[in-house]
Amino acid sequence: MLKSKTFVKKTRSGGVMKIVREHYLRDDIWCGSEVCTECKQESTVLQRDACIESSLCSYPHYLIPDTNVVLHQIDVLEDPVIRNVIILQTVLQEVRHRSAPVYKRLKDIVHEKEKHFYTFTNEHHRETFIEREPGESANDRNDRAIRMASKWYSQHLKTSETGADGLKVVLLTNDQGNKQKAEDNGLLVYKCEEYIKSLIANPELVDHLALSNDEKNEITSSKVLFPEHLPLSKIQAGIKSGSFLQGTFRASRDNYLEATVFVQGEGEDSTEVLLQGLQNLNRAVHQDVVAVQLLPRDQWVAPSSVVLQDEGAAKDDNAEEEDEEKEVMTSMIWKPTGKVVGIIKRSWRPFCGMLNVAQIKESTRHLFTPADRRIPRIRIETRQAATLAGQRIMVAIDGWPKHSRYPNGHFVRSLGSAGEKDTEQEVLLLEHDVPHQAFSQAVLSFLPKMPWAITPEDMVRREDLRNLTVCSVDPPGCTDIDDALHCRELENGNLEVGVHIADVSHFIRPGNALDKEAANRGTTVYLCGKRIDMVPELLSSNLCSLRSNVERLAFSCIWEMNHKAEILKTRFTKSVINSKASLTYAEAQMRIDDTSMNDDITNSLRGLNKLAKILKKQRIEKGALTLSSLEVRFHIDSETHDPIDLQTKELMETNSMVEEFMLLANISVAQKIYDEFPDCAMLRKHPPPPPSNYDILLKAAKSKEVEIHTDSAKALADSLDVAKVDGFPYFNTLLRILATRCMMQAVYFCSGMDSDFHHYGLASPIYTHFTSPIRRYADIIVHRLLAVAIGADSTYPDLMDKHKQSALSNNLNYRHKMSQYAQRASVAFHTQLFFKSRGILNEEGFVLFVRKNAIIVLIPKFGLEGTVFFDTKDKAAPNLVFDEEVPSLKVEEHTFCIFDKVKVTISLDASNVQHQKIRMALIEPVIPGVSVPAPDVGPQAKKPKLDR
Amino acid sequence: MGNVVQRRTRGALRRCPFEVCGNMAGLELLSDQGYRLDGRKATELRKVQARMGVFAQADGSAYLEQGNTKALAVVYGPHEMRGSRSRTRHDQAVINCQYSMATFSTAERKRRPHGDRKSTEMSLHLKQTFEAAVMTQLYPRSQIDIYVKILQSDGGNYSVCVNAATLAVIDAGIPMRDYVCACTVGFVDETPLADLCYAEESGGVSSLALALLPRGGQIALLQMDARLHQDHLEALIEAAMTACKGVSKVLDEVVRQHLQEVSVLTGE
């Protein structure tokens, strides 16, 4: 081993510092090839027989891609055809530095055995390490290091005599200069495109190729559409000096010419900067981290209320067409407005969507429309346009040159034909980043062996509660029952109430593959007619599910209460229970109401119900909010899986009974684990919304002359309770729906990383999730913490590490949010299917929001929201006057305000297969030229079934 | 409103413009292939070089390099108590340690006054270490002074001091139970890393310093400031002990080499 020293100069906070680091160069780093006899390696990665049919290289060869090839052509490298690749450490480090997602994918490939990717640690190798020469840039040095390593490999393989089969290495680079130098050094070097195109047997790989910048695409005119992005160094300097702001770019869903940049300040201190117009958006894509510059204050604008979609024709370069009308702002709510000056980090991922086949038949360039409206359309090159038309495909963005209206991308894979339920579901899951593959063998290997039974070892630290009259109450058709309840009178006259939660942490041990998979999935996702489990079905629907009349392991929270529902004693224990009945909400309600029934289960339920009512009253007195959102349930045809009917979810007393006790258990557990682990308890908080969030609610209430107080949760709850308008029974619900929209998202966090624990909605000083470990990973962590706290289990390192906990809660928050979105998208998709089969319907609805050119209408019967546009492309727009203060919209003679009752027709607009949408048109009030005559509704006979 | 924006703008400045994930500077301390930043494997020590008897004036002295960390140790004694006689122990010698860092020892030149908290603590640790190793009962009512100075610092200051001081004590001819060898170990990606350099130490790694009497396997000092789960502690101590034994081999060679040179000089 040889030692050398490298001297590095580094600037930190302005000063120049000399940093000395040692560097040990080794001669025990092996080449990883099967052929080699010199290297004393234990296992080899690269195969002897590295043949791939190529018209350029007729001999077996290993590939060495350079950094840019890896970064841009990772899709190609991922293809199973490409094997026997040497990834140099230099390349790996550069990739890590430049793109985290590509780095992760590269690492995944390296770990895959069949791919035969070998990582060669050239930077520590005595013969391939090179020092940076004076005047040489870091990039040039790295390129030289790559050439050096390639050279070493070619010589190394030549000397090992067994390489009689003429094994060679091929360097892939797209950099002309690098290629030239490599050729001068006598290396075999090809451009990536050249090489891939030479693969005779696999022409489909060419479509995966990313478009590279250096070969100019003739289609893009030389006209510069966008201002140049600033280099990173200038951005950094600008951010430091305060002239630029750094933030996450969020495109608007409704208006493709508008976006906001969320600038995170310290703590709660953050701003949003508004961006308007293509030039100012300057090629930023949703979720990118960008640098923005604020415009002078006299150019500040308010967010436009126009709903605008990019309907530009399939050809590009029609930027003029979408010229934004510069409207005179009457309002005072100007927002800080800015423009994007540079991109700090792209967060491009493969996007799902559909191909818009170009009009010209032979063209290989096509536009791709992503399913997510916030993503711009992407230009791709493919030869398979005919087959891909009508399919859902995935496309990755490669770059966005400044003279191109759209970003350039390449085809990744096809998901299936559009409109089919499976394809759409796949799209939905991919778009929301829901891990939905089947569980791997490694994960399944950690499941308990069947037949499973409780062993005496299981009983050591458990209480035997099998004799208790425990029962569960759930929605109909529920197979993952994670909670059960009991209530009985004690001898001293007090009541004992128990909440029993499935003991999932008994089966999922920390750190194994099963645990990791569950932690990654974070939550079970419920779609219409489909459930994406967090844990394998054996656990979720069988061993952990607290079904009736079987023995199940549980984690119990048992209180002693008096008849005023005051808690006298709280106790937690692991236990074994035997549920006596699995009831649905309706069944439980029936038992409670049926005075003739007097068995143990019914009495237990009555006791629970009584206590729950008191608990609820107490909670509401403390200021807990009761909010409303409309949820719909589909009746799904058992054979075709098409939705045949839908109804809004009904709430019964028993729903709230179960809910009360779950809340109580969660609060008790939160307190306990926080007391025990002040640093690393996983809790859930719900921050109070900033006052400005309530504007819309206040304005809406004021229009009906109702006063809403938002000073505190209590004030809000009280004023919502008294808010009533005569002859408008639905008003209160509408108000509550609006209030829900004002709220912030509740989040998980680690108690050691935050000081504000308050749960606004529940008016509880501390809260966590304990009661659904089968479908939420946070609950599993809470179970483990609680088990340690009561001495029923031991800790493990990650549980006590607040940084890891905090990283985990971030993932859980992300997964929860995404699962909610996926759920909503699934409902929307099924609503469309439903309306497809029902044809056109006339319904009554209420105006929920008023926009500049449209009103958003809620149909309570379907829980459906839709937009009624007043300006359509093909018709002359009616006279619209928008008043933001009220807010109201005057269409010709009629003025729309929030909460107005309207009548609309609902139909499915299938003109765009990708974005099928529910189209609503006004019937009542009748406005000439705007409203449509009420169409005859076809299947009248079926309708009464819906009315309930 | 303008106010608010202004204030927030300033708030944004103070933050680092690029998000850094994981440990500081996002350095990958241990690659998938098992190499550390400087090319060592997890259990490998830095190169240790040492010389004994560098000063004629002192009773014992030694210079030791462990990678880029360099220390000079000087021993005076045993001699009779100086200064306050109240500290005299009638049954054993008192060990007096003093640790200091040269102004030029780190990347930023900095004046380091004596008696700051860090060096006082380090002095105390050295004292405890050597009280466990030196056979102090042989020199009642006397005092042994050990002075250590860090000339260049690149992580593992404590262990380098201990190793240098051991050689100096041996050079002074003071009997010890065994060499005291020290080493730091850090814990990264479920793997213990031996002999951390500065880049690794400052990378947010939980590290542990251990001084060992290798032959008997007794621990003279164990020090750890960071948080570590109990489950990992054993593996970490195990790795530290292996590393210390590695150091002791090198020190033993140095001593034998030195002895040979000296005996050649004296003509025996």
UniProtKB/TrEMBL annotation, chain A:
<dbReference type="GO" id="GO:0071031">
    <property type="term" value="P:nuclear mRNA surveillance of mRNA 3'-end processing"/>
</dbReference>
<dbReference type="GO" id="GO:0000176">
    <property type="term" value="C:nuclear exosome (RNase complex)"/>
</dbReference>
<dbReference type="GO" id="GO:0016075">
    <property type="term" value="P:rRNA catabolic process"/>
</dbReference>
<keyword id="KW-0378">Hydrolase</keyword>
<dbReference type="InterPro" id="IPR033770">
    <property type="entry name" value="RRP44_S1"/>
</dbReference>
<dbReference type="InterPro" id="IPR022966">
    <property type="entry name" value="RNase_II/R_CS"/>
</dbReference>
<keyword id="KW-0597">Phosphoprotein</keyword>
<dbReference type="GO" id="GO:0000177">
    <property type="term" value="C:cytoplasmic exosome (RNase complex)"/>
</dbReference>
<dbReference type="InterPro" id="IPR029060">
    <property type="entry name" value="PIN-like_dom_sf"/>
</dbReference>
<dbReference type="InterPro" id="IPR012340">
    <property type="entry name" value="NA-bd_OB-fold"/>
</dbReference>
<dbReference type="InterPro" id="IPR033771">
    <property type="entry name" value="Rrp44_CSD1"/>
</dbReference>
<dbReference type="GO" id="GO:0003723">
    <property type="term" value="F:RNA binding"/>
</dbReference>
<keyword id="KW-0694">RNA-binding</keyword>
<dbReference type="Pfam" id="PF17215">
    <property type="entry name" value="Rrp44_S1"/>
</dbReference>
<dbReference type="InterPro" id="IPR001900">
    <property type="entry name" value="RNase_II/R"/>
</dbReference>
<keyword id="KW-0963">Cytoplasm</keyword>
<feature type="domain" description="RNB">
    <location>
        <begin position="462"/>
        <end position="792"/>
    </location>
</feature>
<keyword id="KW-0464">Manganese</keyword>
<comment type="similarity">
    <text>Belongs to the RNR ribonuclease family.</text>
</comment>
<dbReference type="Pfam" id="PF17849">
    <property type="entry name" value="OB_Dis3"/>
</dbReference>
<dbReference type="Pfam" id="PF00773">
    <property type="entry name" value="RNB"/>
</dbReference>
<dbReference type="Pfam" id="PF17216">
    <property type="entry name" value="Rrp44_CSD1"/>
</dbReference>
Automatic annotation (TrEMBL), chain B:
<comment type="subunit">
    <text>Component of the RNA exosome core complex (Exo-9), composed of EXOSC1, EXOSC2, EXOSC3, EXOSC4, EXOSC5, EXOSC6, EXOSC7, EXOSC8 and EXOSC9; within the complex interacts with EXOSC2, EXOSC7 and EXOSC9. The catalytically inactive RNA exosome core complex (Exo-9) associates with the catalytic subunit EXOSC10/RRP6. Exo-9 may associate with DIS3 to form the nucleolar exosome complex, or DIS3L to form the cytoplasmic exosome complex.</text>
</comment>
<dbReference type="InterPro" id="IPR027408">
    <property type="entry name" value="PNPase/RNase_PH_dom_sf"/>
</dbReference>
<keyword id="KW-0539">Nucleus</keyword>
<dbReference type="GO" id="GO:0000176">
    <property type="term" value="C:nuclear exosome (RNase complex)"/>
</dbReference>
<dbReference type="GO" id="GO:0071051">
    <property type="term" value="P:poly(A)-dependent snoRNA 3'-end processing"/>
</dbReference>
<dbReference type="InterPro" id="IPR050080">
    <property type="entry name" value="RNase_PH"/>
</dbReference>
<dbReference type="GO" id="GO:0034475">
    <property type="term" value="P:U4 snRNA 3'-end processing"/>
</dbReference>
<dbReference type="InterPro" id="IPR001247">
    <property type="entry name" value="ExoRNase_PH_dom1"/>
</dbReference>
<dbReference type="GO" id="GO:0071028">
    <property type="term" value="P:nuclear mRNA surveillance"/>
</dbReference>
<dbReference type="GO" id="GO:0003723">
    <property type="term" value="F:RNA binding"/>
</dbReference>
<keyword id="KW-0007">Acetylation</keyword>
<feature type="domain" description="Exoribonuclease phosphorolytic">
    <location>
        <begin position="44"/>
        <end position="175"/>
    </location>
</feature>
<dbReference type="Pfam" id="PF03725">
    <property type="entry name" value="RNase_PH_C"/>
</dbReference>
<keyword id="KW-0963">Cytoplasm</keyword>
<dbReference type="GO" id="GO:0006364">
    <property type="term" value="P:rRNA processing"/>
</dbReference>
<dbReference type="InterPro" id="IPR020568">
    <property type="entry name" value="Ribosomal_Su5_D2-typ_SF"/>
</dbReference>
<dbReference type="InterPro" id="IPR015847">
    <property type="entry name" value="ExoRNase_PH_dom2"/>
</dbReference>
<feature type="domain" description="Exoribonuclease phosphorolytic">
    <location>
        <begin position="178"/>
        <end position="242"/>
    </location>
</feature>
<keyword id="KW-0698">rRNA processing</keyword>
<dbReference type="GO" id="GO:0005730">
    <property type="term" value="C:nucleolus"/>
</dbReference>
<dbReference type="InterPro" id="IPR036345">
    <property type="entry name" value="ExoRNase_PH_dom2_sf"/>
</dbReference>
<protein>
    <recommendedName>
        <fullName>Exosome complex component RRP41</fullName>
    </recommendedName>
</protein>
